[in-house]
Amino acid sequence: MFYLILLLIPVAEIAVFIQVGSRIGVSMTLLLVLASAVFGIWLVRAQGFAAATRVQAMIARGESPALGMLEGLALLAAGVLLLIPGFLTDVAAFVLLIPPLRRAIIRLYLRRVRPEGAVTHHYPGPAKPGRPPLEGESRRED
User: Alpha helix locations (H) across the chain?
Assistant: First the structure.
């Protein structure tokens, strides 16, 4: 299925290029593709910095940065889609650049894909009851 999609995307992009080029002309079509890529990359950069700031704030508050990191991954995907010349990939990228739509896509993804793995937490402080404290030696080297 994945390979079929990889085959169909360029074919669909070529078909859209032909349709748009026949209506507005080749030079305007190329200019539109270039302008959408430049504007999209600017948006990805701005939103990427904002996402990185949100992830750092989540970490500082002791929260899980998983959703912020998934947003960053979606922004990376948008950036890659914008680098591929074409209107369909640009539309998909701009959908990922709209924060409410991006979050809805992430929520849909998380509902469909069940993450696996174990999460362990380490809280500094006194030893838990029933567990002996860790012992060791340390020395300071300046």
Answer: 2-24, 26-60, 66-83, 87-97, 99-112
Query: Alpha-carbon distance 23 to 25, whole Å?
Result: 6
Say which DSSP state 61 is in.
Answer: T
Q: If you ran DSSP here, which 8-state letter would residue 86 be given? A: S
Residue 141 in any domain: the answer is no
| 105 part of a folded domain | yes
Residue 120 has φ and ψ, to the nearest 5°, of -115, 145
pTM assigned to the model: 0.69
Number of domains in the chain: 1
As a whole number of angstroms, the longest Cα–Cα distance in the chain is 77
**pLDDT per position as a tens digit, 113-130:** 876 665 565 555 555 666
Q: How far apart are CA 51 and CA 5, in angstroms?
A: 29
